[in-house]
Amino acid sequence: xxxxxxxxxxxxxxxxxxxxxxxxxxxxxxxxxxxxxxxxxxxxxxxxxxxxxxxxxxxxxxxxxxxxxxxxxxxxxxxxxxxxxxxxxxxxxxxxxxxxxxxxxxxxxxxxxxxxxxxxxxxxxxxxxxxxxxxxxxxxxxxxxxxxxxxxxxxxxxxxxxxxxxxxxxxxxxxxxxxxxxxxxxxxxxxxxxxxxxxxxxxx
Length: 204
Prior knowledge:
By secondary structure, the chain is of the alpha+beta class. The protein has helices at residues 11-21, 40-45, 65-75, 86-112, 124-145, 159-173, 180-190, 193-201; strands at residues 2-5, 26-29, 53-55, 61-63.
């Protein structure tokens, strides 16, 4: 397998999961600064011009954090990355979709890429402020989910690296304070060997 990534991007979540699983894989950096994601070579791999993209052993490519993480979990059931029981499974999906679809896509994406929401540069500060509010409100909601638990559904699951990559942005890119339970989750994630390895390999 080969993971196409950009350092510190949302692909970090998949990178962590692959380290947790322990299956052999390679890393291929996509240089966003040089807009490599829009080049012909990378678009042949992922026409979405996004990371993560996971090239599997049969040559097929899977994209999107949720799809890749579910595939990794289901193909490595011994790692127990998806909780048993309908309720916990549903709650895991609920949290993961909210982190990726709202905190990331509606919140931090406005902060980091305001031009995608307003072509007029005069509006970019307002777009960033709205994105920051969405992200902060989202993390406050997730803080309640984490009350009394180490991880989102109690045990470590595919939802936790998703939360980590957005809290990594909050802490390392924006120097934001985190709600107490989210801060505890962030610290516990940083202490995991798979997370430390992924951060080191990405030069973070």
